[in-house]
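re: ur question from earlier - yeah i can do the single chain one, its not a big deal. heres the input i used so u can compare w yours
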Amino acid sequence: MLAATAPVDESPRPPTSRTSKRPRKATLLEVLTVVLSPVVLFFVLRLRAMAPYNMPDPAMHTAYIVFPHDFFARYSSELGVIAGTREGARVGFLVPARLSFLAFGVVPGFFVFRYLLALVAVVPSYVLLRRLHGRAAGALAVVILMSSPVLITAWGTDYPDSAIVSYLTGALACLAMPCRDKRRAAWLAVAGALFTLAVWSNVEAAPLVAATMLAYLAVGVLRTPRRLLRDALVLGSTAVAVTGVLMLASGLLLGPFDYILPTLRAYRFLNRPVVILEYHSTNRRWILRRPYLLVPAAAVAAWGATFLRRLRAVPTPQLLIGSACATQIAAFSFLQFLGNAETLEQHYYSSSLWAAVSLVLAITVVELAKPLSDHPLARWTPAGLVLIVALLGELDQKPPAFGWSPTGLLIVAALILAAVIGRLVVNARSPAARAISMAVVVAVMGGSLILTVARYQTNGPLPGMVGDPVPAYATALGGSDGNLLDQYRVATELPQFVGNSTYPGERLLMWFPHVQLYHLTEVTGVYHDSFNALPSSWCSGPGCVPGSPGSLTVADRSDLEQRKPAELLVLNAQNLSATLRALAPYDPTLLRTKVLRSGDFAVNLALISLGVYMH
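and the output i got, formated as tokens:
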């Protein structure tokens, strides 16, 4: 029975006046370099600072970061019936995000939290690859993570996948960490804490954590069966402790202490047949139009081709990471095609797979680059090549569109073939082998990038297919933020303009021109978008009567009588006097007006009290 990869020698050495100072300086410089690497690579790669929103869900989470107590006070009784406050139960993301907001403000807090999330992914991955193959391998892992369009896009919004991708990356790296037995419990505790944070960020992470634990159990039975019970106790106790801490933090920072029961109620609500039909595609052919979903399978196939040998000969960390990634893909595929979850068709969910995918690519490329490892300078070549591939990817912000067949599958075949060729020369050290190794690194990472950023191939709508927002992966590297930051600033200033509710259930509805529905998605999203807007502002489809402030439709009057809002927030009204006249039957009082502006983005606001419903 093969033990885990040999741990790094940490036995103490006799200190001397010279040898003690040099290692300390070198270690300090290394630590500083790793800690600053996300900031440095942000500017070197010209990463997009914020991702384009394509649905209101990210802004719904922004509400719980900026003004959670007021939102719960206004809408808990109404939204709770349809599990509409489930975003407020995602405390693994919301608690640290709100702490960052309270400490640094809106936009600075957003970027401070993203920097911390990047460190959660980068630092354990660097330490893992450094212990396995040295500093150059650690640097390669950092570059792969920081140049991933999927991770960059996830980090760019307030949707919880921004935290999940980091938590899962760091947790898997800690779980696979080679170390001395006496330090194993510490690494496991960190992994358990990150896994727990991921689950309580969004339950979409739960099947991924379960799949990872299944892979860990299988590898443990093969390699370290005597240690499994102790490992389970450490992971379990850590999960319980972190859950308790989050419960206390939720009550202090967000409002409700209990976030577990709302999560379970939300799961039951979303699992109803009528809701499943609304969000889950019945036609499976949609996947053939999503080339980026080929990347996880291609990464696992390349890993298999690279480490193709007897099972006993595969080092434990590499075996665990590869098997965990494969098991995660199987879990999400099962839930998507045999279950009722949108784990693959919704990119906010499928992005979570890239935590394991990124680590699989890192350990695969390091293995394929072994012919370069003997030379002190050449061993840094793979990290440089990945950096060059990412920079070249920035040159085309409108990549070609293609589907799985034939282009996508041909790229996957070329990627796997490159891994097979690299495996054949992995033990050679000749100049030719080094040249082949560099070409293989470019082929594997270049193929992955092409598949990731490719646009959807569309040949008309598919019956039974739910419309999925297209992820902005193509502009993650070198893309422009446009006015995304300006919209985010305005959206987060909106609650301050509205003010806190004066009594529980003091409902607020919105009214804005229907033609500006998508233009205002980020702003109106903080008040849950269409759910808290009059029908003429958001309705679509047959029977819809679109409108704008100044003219109430029959559906608008019906909604007002049913919802009984104490206040109406009017956005971008063309004629405020006409708006007040239309609301005359509801005893309107204009409380205040303001223009919120940031850069080129501006929203004209008016807050109106409806006397017939105001307590």
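The first strand starts at residue 508 and ends at 511. not sure if urs matches, ping me
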